[in-house]
Amino acid sequence: MDIKIKNSININGFSGPSQSYYETKERFKAILETKLNIPTVEVPSSSGDLGANDFMIDLLFQQSRSLGEISNYAAPINNPYADKLAENGLIASSNVREKSKVSASYIDSKLQGTALEGLGSAFKKAEEEHGVNALFLLGLAIHESNYGTSRIAKDKNNLFGFQAYDNSPYSSAKGFKSFDESIDTVAKYLSENYLQPDGKYFNGYSISAIGKKYATDPNWANGIENRIKKLIGM
Predict the structure, then answer these.
(1) What is residue 42's three-state secondary structure?
(2) CA–CA separation, 159 and 126 (whole Å)
(3) What distance in Å separates the CA atoms of residue 113 and residue 80, rounded to the nearest whole number?
(4) Which residue numbers delimit the Mannosyl-glycoprotein endo-beta-N-acetylglucosamidase-like domain (predicted)?
């Protein structure tokens, strides 16, 4: 049996939700279907009424807005960078399991004249083999090694400060034979330990979620995201 709620209350000075509200709600409905695999069914309703399914969507939408959860899946309507983020395979969810839509040559074009020049194929290979977004890996490498110029990067081919513990960062940092090996090792480590539900440090798929377990710096996630924005010209 359909449940209908009559929308007949008038409030002075209130003309109803804005168009952006409805647009965002429609995106939320799409998220239920495509991201969360929750089927939605069209319920006929007369003007001014909410069908049963519409009512439930509205409740879920309002709850997710109040908790800030919708930002994990859909970029705000007024976010001028949303399309560019989506085009480059790192959508507003910051799900680092999603593949980037940039090529190795594109990455190389961003690294010309730096110590990381020519590593585009290594980042893309790590993405393909370990399922970690290449732009995230590159942003992490740039952030941790300052484009490969840090002492640990120069002396140990370690682009990520991997195993560089706070009390003895240089001596504890792992050494690699090449930058390529560093990229592959860290991508594999992140995939197995941070991006698997049964991983030792799993806390979610977003950069922010990873940072809470991966780094002691509270601004780590923002730093990585800013690096990525620069890489895609934002």
Answers:
(1) coil
(2) 14
(3) 30
(4) 108-232
Answering whether pTM is above 0.85, one says no
So where are the chain's domains? 5-72, 82-231
Q: What is the distance between the alpha carbons of residues 196 and 168, in angstroms, rounded to a whole number?
A: 29
User: CATH number of the domain at 82-231, please?
Assistant: 1.10.530.10
Q: Which of 136, 123, 150, 97 is nearest to 228 (CA)?
A: 136
Walk along the chain (234 residues) and give the pLDDT tens digit of each residue.
554 444 444 545 545 555 555 566 566 666 655 555 555 544 444 444 444 455 455 545 454 444 444 344 443 334 444 455 555 555 444 799 999 888 999 999 999 999 999 999 999 999 999 999 999 999 999 999 999 999 999 999 999 999 998 889 999 999 999 999 999 999 999 999 999 999 999 999 999 999 999 998 999 999 999 998 888 875
